[in-house]
């Protein structure tokens, strides 16, 4: 069984990335707004389950959002897919800024 990992694990500026990812849960829209049409985002709930577990532990606000929004405002799967789409954007911006050092 794989150890659950956080989405910021292994990044050069891990703490900074963690902060940015945790800030996502401040805004409801990050969970309610779908990714833009035409954006191909392959979302597999099982693949992110361990990330989700770690994030829920690391971010009490995320737990609160999930409690408030699922299932009243958004289905569980949509909640995670919208959120992880944005986590991906944050990670991408870090990959870009990391690689621009060289």
Structural class estimated from helices and strands: mainly alpha
Number of helices, counting only DSSP H or I runs of 4 residues or more: 5
Overall body shape: globular
Order of helices and strands: HHHHH
Work out the helicity level: 55-70%
Most strands sheet: none
> First CA to last CA: what distance?
36 Å
Average pLDDT: 90
Strand segment count: 0
Instruction: Supply Rg.
Output: 14 Å
Residues in β-strands, percent: under 5%
Low-confidence stretches: none
Strands, helices and their partners?
Elements: H1 14-23, H2 29-32, H3 45-58, H4 60-69, H5 76-99
Helix pairs in contact: 3-4
Please outline what is shown here.
The chain has 102 residues and is an all-alpha fold. It is built from 5 helices and no strands.
């Amino acid at each position: 069984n794989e150890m659950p990992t956080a989405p910021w694990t292994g990044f050069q500026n891990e703490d900074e990335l963690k902060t940015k990812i945790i800030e996502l849960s401040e805004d409801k829209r990050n969970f309610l707004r779908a990714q833009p049409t035409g954006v191909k985002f392959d979302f597999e709930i099982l693949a992110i389950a361990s990330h989700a577990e770690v994030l829920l532990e690391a971010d009490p606000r995320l737990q609160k959002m999930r409690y408030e929004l699922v299932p009243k405002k958004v289905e569980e799967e949509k909640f995670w897919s919208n959120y992880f789409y944005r986590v991906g954007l944050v990670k991408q911006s870090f990959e870009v800024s990391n690689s621009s050092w060289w």
